[in-house]
Design brief:
Elements: H1 3-12, H2 19-22, H3 29-38, H4 41-49, H5 64-70, H6 74-82, H7 97-103, H8 110-117, H9 132-139, H10 142-150, H11 165-172, H12 175-183, H13 198-201, H14 206-214, H15 229-233, H16 237-246, H17 248-256
Helix pairs in contact: 3-4, 3-5, 5-6, 7-8, 7-9, 9-10, 9-11, 11-12
Length: about 260
């Protein structure tokens, strides 16, 4: 048994007399899961050599690949993928690995790229029908958005609430993502189940409202409460002030017939 494994087992409270009995046998699943959560990549590699299951799951049902990603153990995650971990596995919350990686909004997106290269489904659905593209649009990672679309992600796919990637980008004011999605055929006035359009989702972002109008969004649409984007803006003094300053407010009033 290697020194690293011995030290790790001792730290976990495995008694020393039991160590020889473990040598040459499969690593206990709980130990391997702990490696993936907090051990070094060398620990994990050693665990795999000792028949650690790269698709093992914790008590909550999270596979070790997701555990590694959620704990920002990216070298471990890459090793697991290279050793055959299921890149389309889902976690306890119902989200596939690719969505989990994107949701973590990692500065280093190499694991996201690797997952796609190894066959992760770019249209794989997660909780509430979420897609990887919706997740990338929400966190505003334009590079990942472009990667997904280049690999066939459906730009107009909707989740269980009728939201699309464009809705998600508009809600967060990610203008670069919005422009790119529109250039790839995103429907600008697509409506979710309550009637809301991406323009309505942009209520908190004056520049995004102006961008969507410039791209052809129709401000006359009403949600199921009968409200337009202008009705919402009337309740938001700071947003209204910014829109007045840019001339967008008058433009909206004219468009909805409230001059």
């Amino acid at each position: 048994m290697k020194k690293g494994l011995l030290a790790f087992l001792l730290a976990l409270g495995v008694c020393a007399p039991a160590m020889p009995a473990l040598a040459g046998t499969a690593i206990p699943e709980s130990v391997f899961i702990s490696y993936c959560r907090e051990g070094s990549v060398e620990d994990v590699d050693e665990g795999i050599a000792n028949r650690g299951d790269v698709n093992a799951k914790d008590e909550e049902g999270n596979p070790v690949l997701i555990i590694a990603i959620n704990n920002i153990r990216l070298d471990t995650a890459k090793l697991l993928v290279e050793k055959g971990a299921d890149v389309n596995a889902k976690g306890a919350e119902g989200n596939p690995v690719l969505i989990v990686a994107i949701d973590n909004d990692l500065k280093d997106i190499s694991i996201v790229k690797l997952l796609m290269e190894k066959g992760a489904d770019v249209n794989g659905r997660g909780a509430d029908g979420e897609t990887p593209l919706m997740s990338a649009a929400f966190v505003g990672n334009l590079e990942v958005v472009k990667m997904l679309v280049s690999r066939g992600a459906q730009v107009n796919a909707a989740n269980s609430y009728g939201e699309t990637a464009l809705h998600r980008a508009a809600y967060e004011g990610h203008n670069g993502v919005i422009s790119f999605l529109l250039s790839k055929g995103a429907q600008i006035d697509t409506r979710r189940d309550d009637g809301s359009t991406p323009l309505m989702y942009a209520w908190n972002h004056p520049e995004t409202i102006r961008l969507l109008l410039d791209k052809g969004a129709d401000p006359r649409f009403r949600n199921k409460n009968g409200e337009t984007i202008l009705d919402t803006i009337e309740t938001l003094p700071d947003i209204k002030k910014a829109l007045v300053a840019s001339g967008t407010y008058e433009r909206l009033k004219k468009a909805v017939g409230k001059e």
